[in-house]
Fold this protein.
Amino acid sequence: MEKKIFDITQLGLAAIDQAQTLDQLTEVRNQYLAKKSELMSIFGLLKDLSVEEKKSIGLRINEARDQLTRALDTKKEWLEKQALQAKFAEEQLDITLPGRALELKTAHPFFLIQEEISDIFVAMGYQIAEGPEVESDHYNFELLNIPKDHPARDMQDSLYMDDVTLLRTHTSPVQARVMEAAKGQPVQVICPGKVYRRDEDDATHSHQFGQIEGLVIGEGVNLGHLKDTLLVFAKKLFGEKREIRLRPSFFPFTEPSVEIDVSCFVCSGKGCSMCKQTGWIEILGGGMVHPRVLTMNGYNDKTMTGFAFGIGIERVAMLRYGIDDIRKFYQNNLRFLKQFQGR
C-alpha cells in the first residue's frame, strides 16, 4: 500500500509539472486530491488494518497530500505570474505614439443660463423649489385661478395622460405646491424646470421649453418690490447699464399683470435689428399674485400679498448668445454645442 501511495504521488507530481494552464492545474488538483481521488480513497481501506499499520499508512497519505498540495501551490503561483506577464505583453502601450488630447466638456447653453439665473436669485435670498413634470389639473390650472372652460386655457390645455393628468404647461404648479406646504407663511422661491405645450415647432416655438418662475409672498409686498427685483436681475444678467420697463398685460393668476422689457444690450436703446428698432426687448412676464390665488392656497389676502414672474430659459439664452433657432437646443448637434466649450 505504501508503494501505491508512492506511485500516485509521483504521477501527481509529474502531472503538476506538465500542466501549462491554470485550468489544467485545477484538473490535476481534482484528480489527485479530491475526496473521491485514488489517493484519498485509500483512507477507506484503513479500517481493515492493524493499529500500527493505520498510523503508518495514514502518515504516508498525509505526507503525500501535503507534498502534492505544496507542488500545486507553487505551480499555481508560477502560472499566475506567467499569465500576468503575458497580459502585460499583450496590452503593452507604445509610448512613442502621440498622446490623445483631453477635450473640455461642452456645457449646454440651456443649463448655462438656468444655472446663471438661479445663482442670481439665490444670491438675493431665494430658495429653489422643484416639482413633478406630470401634474394634475388641480395644481396646473385650478389653484392658479384657471378654472375649466376658462379662455386662458386655450393656449395651454395640451398634453394629457388622462382626463385629470397632463404634462405641466408651466412651473406655476410648483408655486401652488409651495404655497400649500407653507400654510400661510411667507415664501421666497424660484421654480426652474421643463414645461410642455401644444405648440408649433419653428424658430421661436417648441412643444418643450424651460421656465424659471419666481414667487414672493409676505406682508407689505408690492409692485415696487417686483420692479426692483427684476431690475437687479436684468443688470446682473445683461449688464449694469440696463434698464427695465413694465407694460400692462393679463395673466389669470396675477392682478395687476405686466410684461417686462429690458433696454437693448446691443444698441443701448438706440434701435437695432435685435430690438426691432424699439430700443427694448421683452424678456419675461409677472405681476402681483391674484387675491383669489392667495385665498385658494391658504393665505389671508387681507394681510398677505405677493408677486410672481416667469422667465423663458431658451429665450434668454437666445438673446445672450445670439442663437437664431430654438430647435438647436434639442438637436444634439456637436458643432453647435462646442461653441459653448469651457464656458
Notes: DSSP finds eleven helices and nine strands in the chain.
